[in-house]
């Protein structure tokens, strides 16, 4: 399988993943009167297709590690189940994220959902495996919480400009974030324990779990939608070909970013891949503010809250990355000390 030949290539892959994660939702914004429940079928198919394409190309050629099919044959079945379960949890979270985008816009939904996911992910990871500086992690979590509160305040201030503002949309984004921060332990275990899956293999089963989940969760949302009237599959087939293509493209973009992040993380290290990957909400917020003009005419108060959100989110990423770096530095010092004592 392909692995990055150098740190520079790995770094470019991680940066690409952040841009992909922060940009795929533009494809939904570009559709025309296409309900998110229907869009999501195209998106879910897209993430599976791109994962399979990359698994049978990048994941099957090269001299570094087993190819995709050989890895699947040798992997523990428990790891495959874990990847599928992780995909199911992610899919529910992502469906709610797309619903949040539909209700509140990119610049609000992404920072709220992924900000909560950042908090949940850090706390859950530390509880399961205490690594990193607890103090820096705590300050990072606090900064992320402030960022989420700030974007919530910015969204609330839109009401003064005559825009529709609902508490329901924020609740949906918060639930999305809690779930989004909960699937990582399943993926991590499948990548690291026993006869583990390669990044390419786990992407296939992860996205397959997400797609299969749609036949339960997305069908439920079609019948009992969060916004608007119920839709059925006849509406899906009435949609424009361009809308279907945008849905598939959204899945391709997200899937490419995910595989690149999985593959490059082992080369760049946790701190770098995590920090750059978690900057995706900043990319999405910039799209929402600068391109889709979601805060146009909102007034100075909203702009101040947006500025606070950006600063606090960046601070949270830096603090959490430094917390993991601090752990790495301590471990390196201990290795050097042990080497000196035994020499």
Describe this structure in words.
The protein starts with 6 loop residues before the first helix and ends with a helix. The radius of gyration is 20 Å and the shape is globular. Helix 3 (36-56) runs antiparallel to helix 11 (217-223) and helix 5 (77-104) runs antiparallel to helix 8. It is mostly helical and 343 residues long. It has one domain (7-342). The relative contact order is 0.21. It has 16 helices and no strands.
Please supply descriptive tags for the structure shown above:
single chain; 343 residues; 78% helix
Helices and strands, in N-to-C order?
Answer: HHHHHHHHHHHHHHHH
User: Low-confidence runs (pLDDT<50, min 5 residues)?
Assistant: 336-343
Mean pLDDT: 89
**Overall shape:** globular
The assigned structural class equals: mainly alpha
Strand content: under 5%
N-end to C-end Cα span: 38 Å
Major β-sheet annotation = none
Number of strands: 0
Care to give the gist of this entry?
By secondary structure, this protein is an all-alpha fold. The protein has helices at residues 7-23, 26-29, 36-56, 68-74, 77-104, 106-128, 134-156, 167-180, 184-192, 199-214, 217-223, 233-238, 241-268, 270-277, 280-291, 300-342.
Secondary-structure map with pairings?
Layout: H1 7-23, H2 26-29, H3 36-56, H4 68-74, H5 77-104, H6 106-128, H7 134-156, H8 167-180, H9 184-192, H10 199-214, H11 217-223, H12 233-238, H13 241-268, H14 270-277, H15 280-291, H16 300-342
Helix pairs in contact: 1-13, 1-14, 1-15, 3-10, 3-11, 3-13, 5-6, 5-8, 5-9, 5-10, 6-7, 6-8, 6-15, 7-16, 10-13, 13-14, 14-16
């Amino acid at each position: 399988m392909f692995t990055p030949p150098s740190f520079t290539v790995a770094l470019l892959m991680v940066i690409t993943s952040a841009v992909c994660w922060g940009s795929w939702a533009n494809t939904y914004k570009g559709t025309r009167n296409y309900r998110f429940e229907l869009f999501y079928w195209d998106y879910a198919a897209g993430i599976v297709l791109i994962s399979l394409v990359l698994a049978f190309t990048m994941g099957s050629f090269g001299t570094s590690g087993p190819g995709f099919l050989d890895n699947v044959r040798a992997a523990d079945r428990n790891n495959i189940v874990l990847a599928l379960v992780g995909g199911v949890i992610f899919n529910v979270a992502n469906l709610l994220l797309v619903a949040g985008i539909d209700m509140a816009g990119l610049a609000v939904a992404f920072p709220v959902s992924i900000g909560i996911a950042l908090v949940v992910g850090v706390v859950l990871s530390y509880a399961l495996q205490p690594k990193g500086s607890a103090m820096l992690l705590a300050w990072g979590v606090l900064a992320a919480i402030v960022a989420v509160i700030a974007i919530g305040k910015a969204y609330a201030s839109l009401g003064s400009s005559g825009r529709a503002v609902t508490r329901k949309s924020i609740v949906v984004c918060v639930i999305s974030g809690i779930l989004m921060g909960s699937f990582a332990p399943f993926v991590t275990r499948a990548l690291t324990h026993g006869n583990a899956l390669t990044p390419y293999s786990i992407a296939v089963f992860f996205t397959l779990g997400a797609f299969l989940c749609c036949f339960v969760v997305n069908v439920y949302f079609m019948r009992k939608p969060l916004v608007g009237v119920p839709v059925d599959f006849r509406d899906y087939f009435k949609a424009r070909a361009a809308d279907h293509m945008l849905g598939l493209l959204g899945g391709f973009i997200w899937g490419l970013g995910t595989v690149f992040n999985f593959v490059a993380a082992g080369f760049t290290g946790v701190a770098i891949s995590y920090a750059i990957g978690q900057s995706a909400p900043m990319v999405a917020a910039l799209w929402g503010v600068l391109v889709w003009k979601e805060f146009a005419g909102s007034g100075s108060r909203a702009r101040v809250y947006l500025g606070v959100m950006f600063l606090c989110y960046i601070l949270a990423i830096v603090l959490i990355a430094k917390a993991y770096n601090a752990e790495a530095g301590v471990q390196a010092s201990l290795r050097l000390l042990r080497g000196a004592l035994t020499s």
